[in-house]
Amino acid sequence: MFDRWPAGRVIHVIHDTAFAPESFNPGVDAARRLRKPTRFAPIHSLKGKVVPYLYGGSTLDCAIFETVFYDVPIDAPDKFVDLDDFAQRGHGELVPSRDLKLVDLTSEGLHRLKVPKEELIASPSRDYPATAAWAQALHQQFSDVDGLLWMSRQRDRDHALVLFGDRLTGALSGRRVGGPLARNTALRDAVLAAALRAGIEAD
After folding, report:
1. Cα 59 to Cα 93: distance, rounded to the nearest angstrom
2. Alpha-carbon span 171 to 165, nearest angstrom
3. Using one digit for the tens of pLDDT, what is the confidence trace for 133-172?
4. Which of 113, 144, 150, 159 is the most exposed place for a label (fewest CB within 10 A)?
5. How far, in Å, are 12, 37, 93, 95 from residue 9 at the CA level?
6. What does the H/E/C string look like for 11-53?
7. Which residues of 115-145 are buried (b: 16+ CB within 10 A; e: fewer)?
8. Which of 165, 196, 168, 191 is nearest to 65 (CA)?
């Protein structure tokens, strides 16, 4: 039911460059209202506090697909992404200083939980309250778990993960890989190459 992300193994993120790449989303806005639901966040701890969270991937391509291409329907006749919408996003690399204990939501873990992939990993956004409820239950049941791990829905050859900020204080170091997309040629080339492979028009 659990998997290990070893210390030193890089986690890739596409992050808002106004913040450090290792910054966690607080889950609430300035008025303390819950942020827009995602698949596994925001959630509450047993004490009722909103748990900060951070999504990442095992490769840069995974991070690109899980952010820049996240809302592109697979079956759309015309697939387009306006890169201006991501102009201030950048590539970051996070390195954990210790092994991370993650709930395994790959096929083996889902078998143990007796939950079909379509209900937890591949469900549409309208089901996010239900999928986030699973994340909350797992967070509350296992006090030593650092997050969740699954095969990316957007790029299923890579692992995606969400990390719980209340469990990882001081455990992640991050570095920026170039600047924001608007002036980061290497990142732009990586995004355009991924888009070409997936038949997505990006400009």
Report:
1. 10
2. 10
3. 999 999 999 999 999 999 999 999 999 999 999 999 999 9
4. 144
5. 10, 28, 10, 6
6. EEEEEECCCCCCCCECCECCCCCECCCECCECEECCCCCEECE
7. eebeebbebeeebbeebbebbbebbeeeeeb
8. 191
Question: What pTM did the predictor assign?
Answer: 0.95
Q: Residue 93: what are its φ and ψ, rounded to 5°?
A: -120, 125
Under DSSP, the state recorded for 81 is E
The CA distances from residue 102 to 106, 126, 147, 173, 179, in Å, are 11, 25, 5, 18, 30
pLDDT tens digits along 28-53: 998 889 999 999 999 999 999 999 99
Q: Which two tokens stand for residue 61?
A: 């391509």
**Do 60 and 190 form a contact (C-beta atoms < 8 A)?**
yes
Q: Which domains does the chain have, with CATH numbers?
A: 2-202 (3.90.175)
Tokens at residue 29, please?
């806005």
User: Which amino acid is it at 39?
Assistant: R
Structural tokens at position 22? 């290792």
